[in-house]
Write a structure and sequence with these properties.
The complex is a heterodimer of chains A (about 70) and B (about 625).
Chain A: E1 2-9, H1 12-23, E2 28-34, E3 39-44, H2 50-64, E4 68-71
Antiparallel strand pairs in A: 1-3, 1-4, 2-3
Chain B: H1 3-24, H2 31-58, H3 65-78, H4 82-113, E1 121-124, E2 130-133, E3 143-146, E4 156-160, E5 163-166, H5 168-171, E6 176-179, E7 184-185, E8 190-191, E9 196-200, H6 208-217, H7 225-258, H8 265-279, H9 282-301, E10 304-306, H10 309-315, E11 318-324, E12 330-340, H11 346-356, H12 363-372, E13 381-387, E14 391-396, E15 399-404, H13 406-412, E16 424-430, E17 433-444, H14 448-457, E18 462-466, H15 471-481, E19 485-487, H16 492-506, E20 511-516, H17 522-527, E21 530-534, H18 540-545, E22 548-550, H19 556-592, H20 597-616
Parallel strand pairs in B: 11-18, 11-20, 18-19, 20-21, 21-22
Antiparallel strand pairs in B: 1-2, 1-3, 3-9, 4-7, 4-9, 5-6, 5-8, 10-22, 12-17, 13-14, 14-15, 15-16, 16-17
Helix pairs in contact in B: 1-2, 1-4, 2-3, 2-4, 3-4, 3-8, 4-9, 4-20, 7-8, 7-9, 8-19, 8-20, 9-19, 9-20, 10-19, 11-12, 14-19, 19-20
Classes of the chains: A alpha+beta (about 70), B alpha+beta (about 625).
């Protein structure tokens, strides 16, 4: 399952950090952040609860880059 | 400006004014008051950096720019260099503000250029009333109305009206295209003159505009080697710098102490702090992704979709370009290029052939009718028989006509003249006697030659054409377009083998690109280092398989894509060398005690601003 979320982040490198953090979250198979479109695409593991996983993704992103936002 | 940026700007201005006032006040004799007063602008401008640094430490993400800045400024304040402390923070924030503004500006530019997302579709109801509908909810076969000035929201066929379309948003070229009833239209084009009614042929999600937006939004998911380098670089670099700074603050004083000299702690700590400020990696970390972001965006706006920054890198190293023939070098539509051995007038022969073929929908028949140019009255034709793989027999104006290939002529026992011209030969016989033949060939695109020359200018050393056509036709096209080599009579599978051969011959350093129109060549597109699909609008397989998608079928865009990639990569390397060079020089000066805090601020913020300005140049690709 794939979902796209709108995000807000200031610099391209911070976007890369967010992508890395999202990728390493349990339940996420793959993630990509597009800094140009300010969007995050997340591909979930089969059977993962997207909402719960996304809460972890937000938490992990906040750890690497405090000044970021993911609009769930 | 966003709210965040405005907020920061106000803070920077207030802190700046307050700071100037403080510098004018005679506070030398009140050290405590002086400290308290300087703390005000310092906190105003830098509180969020301090907070981020603190949070970073708590989250075990210690070594980032915020941490560097926090340590450097707190250190400076502690040493009593209040001015420097505030100034470092102040300039750092100015740099941040500038970078964020530049990014926002580029993003807006790109968004405006790629503005093809339709907001709504006007669905025509039973009674002719228009209803504004979300394009997502429109089913296939629905009638929608597009007024002048509006974007076509969904791919479809015109069922009413004439108009001119502006395809600039799709192709980057503002060539107006006339459409009338029966024509296919693509979403994303802007209707310029008349009202159009369109019957949709696809769902919104499958329409061209959605496909392109999808592609653009996924573009940056594949990272280039230089971006990966930066990620790795930042991971090692910042901790290394912090440790060196710590060593610089402690070791020399200790050595001096052991040697019996005065340790000069504050002097060495000051040097260590300058060292920290200089070493802040923002310039590189920010400017490199921004360069790719600008390059991909700028290319997209000129109708060239590059699917990732790693491909930008490969594209800049393309030395060998292999072409499919039909649809890339040639137009892919057939035209009559010659009429030979005809005892009657050429016009007459063409008329005869056009009449005999008037019922056929074969591309060859269509090209003959197009060359004839006049209406073919079906009343003049009777008793049409189509012999598959051979041609057509018909009675035209009371005479028995035969139009077809050599096989047909043999079967009828007619002696046909051989033809050495490249292309497809259509022989004509009238009442059992040979009446000549028509040569039909694919037209070379008018700018094919210019495109090949442009490729050579862009650093491509070898061009090869791969085609399934026969030797003579392939040779003629290759010669006319100025292609170095050609391989003819290839089956689709052979093309993959040829590309593999090219890959082996070209070696690691120089990359091989394959250009195709996406029809039947998806495997080849995937196999080459870079697959370029052109005129790919509407061909899903090509958009899927290719690395670079040219939205129209102009071969000049191939060279343009390579030039954009080269410019972007050049800017990336300029920034890497410039930033690291300046920083290294300043670091050495800082360690030796020659550089002061003000030079350090330049090495940090100044270099970053220059790198960002340079990176923004990637966006300007129109004139390339």
């Amino acid at each position: 399952m794939k979902k796209t979320y709108k995000i807000d982040v200031d610099c391209a490198n911070c976007a890369n950090k967010m992508e890395e953090a999202a990728k390493n979250t349990a339940g996420v198979r793959d993630a990509s952040v597009n800094f140009m479109a300010l969007k995050m695409k997340v591909e979930f593991e089969d059977g993962a609860d997207a909402d719960a996983v996304m809460r972890d993704v937000v938490k992990n992103c906040k750890i690497v880059e405090d000044d970021c936002e993911i609009f769930l | 400006m966003t709210k965040k940026q405005k907020n920061l700007l106000i803070r920077v201005i207030c802190a700046g004014i307050f700071m100037l006032l403080l510098l004018l006040l005679p506070l030398e004799n009140y050290p405590l008051l002086r400290f308290a007063l300087f703390l005000i602008p310092y906190l105003t401008v830098g509180y969020d950096i301090l907070r981020k640094a603190f949070k970073g430490i708590r989250n075990r993400q210690v070594f980032d720019e915020n941490f560097l800045m926090a340590v450097a400024t707190i250190g400076a304040m502690a040493l009593g260099d209040y001015k420097e402390g505030v100034a470092v923070m102040w300039f750092y924030q100015i740099g941040e503000l500038f970078q964020s503004y530049a990014v926002g500006k580029s993003r807006k530019n790109i968004a405006a250029l790629m503005d093809i997302r339709p907001d709504c579709a006007n669905v025509e109801g039973e009674d002719g009333e228009l209803e504004e509908t979300d394009p997502d909810d429109v089913e296939i076969g629905t009638r929608i109305v597009v007024r002048p000035g509006e974007k076509i929201p969904i791919d479809g066929r015109v069922v009413f009206g004439n108009s001119t379309l502006n395809t600039a948003a799709l192709t980057g070229e503002s060539l107006p295209r006339d459409v009338s009833v029966g024509d296919e239209v693509l979403s994303g084009c802007v209707n310029m003159s008349g009202l159009l009614k369109i019957e949709t042929t696809r769902e919104f999600g499958e329409s061209t505009a959605s496909k392109i937006l999808d592609l653009v939004e996924n573009a940056s998911s594949r990272k280039s080697r230089s971006e990966q380098f930066i990620t790795r670089f930042a991971r090692v670099y910042t901790p290394a710098v912090c440790c060196s700074a710590l060593a610089l603050a402690i070791l020399p004083p200790l050595v001096r102490l052991l040697a019996g000299q005065s340790p000069d702690f504050s002097d060495w700590i000051y040097r260590a702090l300058t060292f920290l400020v200089i070493s802040c990696p923002c310039a590189i970390v920010v400017s490199i992704p921004l360069s790719f972001f600008g390059g991909i965006g700028g290319a997209g706006a000129s109708g060239i979709l590059i699917k990732g920054s790693n491909l930008m890198e490969t594209l800049s190293k393309v030395k060998v370009v292999a072409f499919d023939k039909t649809g890339t070098i040639t137009k892919g539509n057939f035209t009559v290029t010659g009429i030979h051995h005809s005892p009657m007038e050429n016009e007459k022969l063409l008329e005869l052939a056009a009449l005999a073929e008037s019922h056929s929908d074969h591309p060859i028949s269509r090209s003959i009718r197009a060359a004839y140019g006049k209406e073919t009255a079906s009343s003049r034709v009777a008793d049409v028989r189509e012999l598959s793989g051979k041609g057509i027999l018909a009675v035209v104006d009371g005479h028995q006509a035969a139009v077809g290939n050599l096989k047909l002529m043999k079967e009828l026992g007619v002696e046909a003249a051989e033809c050495r011209s490249p292309g497809t030969i259509v022989h004509v016989a009238l009442d059992g006697a040979y009446a000549g033949h028509i040569v039909i060939s694919d037209e070379i695109k008018p700018n094919a030659k210019a495109a090949l020359a442009a490729l050579k200018d862009a650093g491509v050393v070898r061009t090869v054409m791969l085609t399934g056509d026969k030797e003579s036709a392939a040779g003629a096209v290759a010669e006319a377009a100025g292609i170095d080599e050609y391989r003819s009579e290839l089956l689709p599978g052979d093309k993959v083998k040829e590309v593999e051969k090219l890959l082996k011959e070209s070696g690691e350093k120089s990359k091989v690109a394959f250009v195709g129109d996406g029809i039947n060549d998806a495997p080849v597109l995937t196999r080459a280092d870079i697959g370029i699909a052109m005129g790919a609008l509407g061909s899903d397989a090509a958009i899927e398989a290719a690395d670079v998608v040219l939205m129209d079928d102009d071969p000049l865009k191939i060279a343009k894509a390579i030039r954009i990639a080269k410019k972007c990569l050049r800017i990336v390397y300029e920034n890497i060398y410039f930033a690291i060079g300046v920083k290294l020089a300043c670091l050495i000066l800082g360690a030796l005690g020659i550089a002061n805090m003000w030079l350090a601020i330049f090495a940090d913020v100044g270099v970053m601003v220059l790198c960002v300005l340079n990176a923004v140049r990637c966006l300007a690709v129109k004139k390339l």
